[in-house]
Each structure stands twice: as C-alpha cells, then as structure tokens.
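Entry for the shared binder. Reason: the reviewer on the internal report wants the predicted structure included alongside the sequence.
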Amino acid sequence: MNPVSHPASAARPQNGSMGAPQDAPQGDPLGISQNGPLGAPQNGARKHALQGYLRADGRKGIRNHVSVVYLVECAHHVAREITWPYRHAGAHLIGFPGCFSNEYAAMMMERLCLHPNVGAVLLVSLGCECFQREPLQEKIRESGRPLETIVIQQNGGTLRSIEDGQRWVADQLAVLSKAPKVDMALSELVIGTTCGGSDSLSGVTANPVVGLAFDRLVDDGAAVMFEELGELIGCDEHMAERAVSPGLADEIRGAMDKTRAYYQHFGHGNIGDGNVEGGLTTIEEKSIGAYTKSGSRPIVGMIKPGDVPEHGGLYLMDMIPDGPVKFGLPDVNDTAEIVEMVACGCHLILFTTGRGSVVGSALAPVIKICSNPETYRNMEGDMDINAGAIIDEVKAPADVADALYQQVLATAAGEHTKSEALGHQEFLLWYKSMEPIGPACLPLRQAM
C-alpha cells in the first residue's frame, strides 16, 4: 500500500468520525468500550472547571499561540527572526526543512497548523521549494484562523520579510489576547507521554507515577496516549491482553513485529549510552520501565502520527515507519516523538527523565517528571514534579501521582510549566512513510 497524506484517511468516513461502531467485547465490566466522544464525561467522572479557546472543528485549546511556520530550511532563519521578539508572548516556531515533497510531512504540517492550541498562522516560504503551500493555506482558511503568507523571494528579501512578519505577529497577538474563552471539560483533553534521558530509577518512580495519573485521567474521560514502540520490545503480549478487542490485539502484535524488524535492520535497540551510564543494562529493562507509563486501563485503540482520537481512553501510537527502511531511524530524538503526539491533538505532554532532559515543545506545554532525587535537586529549575521523593521516602507514589494530576489541571488552566517559562520550543519534523490504520485499530464505541 502506498503512503497517503492522511494516515487514517482510508479508515475515516467523510463525516470525519473514526469509522463505524464495532461490537463491544464480551464482558466489559469497565465499560471502556462505551467511551463517548471527547467532551462527554463518563458516568461518575469528576468534573473540573477549565476554560479553553473554541475552534471551528469543535475542539478547544488551552493556549492561543501564533504559529510561525517555515516551509523549507532556506526560510528557517527569517521565520526564527520573526518569532524571536515574541517568543515569550505566544509566538511559536515550527516548520519542515526538506526540499522535496513528502506526504507524511504535508499531513503533519496541516495537523500542527490546525492544532487546538493555535489561534493564527504565518507561513514563511522561500518561494521555490517543493512544498505545496496552497493546500495548506486552504485548510487553514477553512478552519477560520487568521492566515498570512510571506514569500521571501517576492517580498524583497530577508529584512523586509522579517519586518512584515513581525508586524503581523504583533497585531495577531494583540487580537488573540482578547479572545474569549468557553467552558471546557477535563474529558476534552488529549494528553501524551514520552521519556528522555531515562535512568535506572525511571521505571521505579517517574514512569509508574505517570501510569497512575493516566489511569485517573482515563477515568475522567480524557484521551491519553503512549508510544515509543522501540522501547516496548518484549511487552507485546502484555499490551495485547489489554486490548479491548481481538482485532486490536493482533494489530498491536503486528506493530511490534514491525518494530523489531526495523531495529534489527540497524543492528541495535533503542537504548543509548546515556541510559547505560544512568544504570539501565538492557532494552528489556528499559522497556519494562517505559511500559509502566501506560498505567493499567484497557487499550481502546492504536493510532499513528496525525490521527486525532475522538473518544476518551488509552491509545497506543504506532510511530514506526511502514514499508522498507527509507529515512533512517523511526524518530531520531525525543523532540520528534513529541511533535508526532502534538500532531495527534495532544494539548500537553508528560515527559519523564532521570538524567535531566531540558526539552520542551512548540505549541503544547511539557510537564517534566524527574525520577532521580539528585537530578531534581541539581536541576529543579527545569523540573515540574519530583518523583525522586519516592526514593527519598518523603512521598508515596500515589501522592506524587496526585501532584502530577493537579499539575495537569493547573497547566490546562493556563499555568506555565517550567519549560514554557524558560522559553523552550523544541521542534523537529522529518521525512517518514506511514500507511493508514486499519479498522481493527479504531476504538470500540457504544452502538447507537
């Protein structure tokens, strides 16, 4: 099957829903198969008073950023200079550096420009790149967001383009600062998790804490996702047993088979020197620790980068490229993984670290959960949650998980995370080939 620009497009009907309802599995005591659409709290779910920015597609953002988007690396400098004076005021820089067209990258750029945390978009084009900006412009206009395009070769070059771009961004930020908010339920949130700079304590403290918080968020009706298939090797059957249907279980097994084959091509697993220096010894040990971030709730679906879940529950994101190896490693660093979850509509990211990663993200806030008490004391200015307090026997895992849950609520309500306050806006998008998800990957829904 040839890659398509919308990985789930083959599975989505024209009305935008993620496929026809499937039968719920026999004996579903948790009622996970009956999760309603995002925004519909489940029976007994706690309601929390949040507010967000309503978008034309019905989603709500917890931020209202101006996204400055370069369409080729040759336009990166101009876009960065446009953004720089307003980097702490809500202007965020993203873009695709490639000179040649790629359907995955085009789809990702569309999803990111239409992210619920984005209120306005400035496209910065050199003018002769292969990226097709017209379809992207059309999608942004249809979304109702203010749009401006600067073509450097037609706009008098670098200085004039920077001046015009900065003027437009300043005007939009002033308008967006007065935008009204509407009520938003916790069940409307989409939240992802990843890890970076893991150490021997990650699987003991920070990752299980995220799992506990994920369980609570799923019970509240939110959509949460985990990924890093290269760090889940050996967990295949554990995940398959949690799938809400046999078909989904088979899809998970197939994704993990693909993962093993992909990494065998490179001759190594997804474990780095920093992990070993931090006390991890094998990919199996790292996988067990990474898996605990997913919590204990049933897996209701498997998605791919750019697929936006429309229902609450726990999702696995398959980020391993399909087909033969073309563009190198699946994701060359943590930032690329974050970007793919943001393209799935994640409002914010839960990021665990033991060695002390400082990365944040463009468009979506990143909450840092530190596994190691020594690292936390050394880098407290970068860390939001000290899961190392479990090792110090100051707090129980449930207490740290509650602190993380409360931090999620505060961040969704507008409080800046440490990485946001420090101006971190890391972003990386590269070439990839992805096929559409199959019907068995879709979440089970209550028959209407």
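Summary line for the report: The two ends are 32 Å apart (CA to CA).
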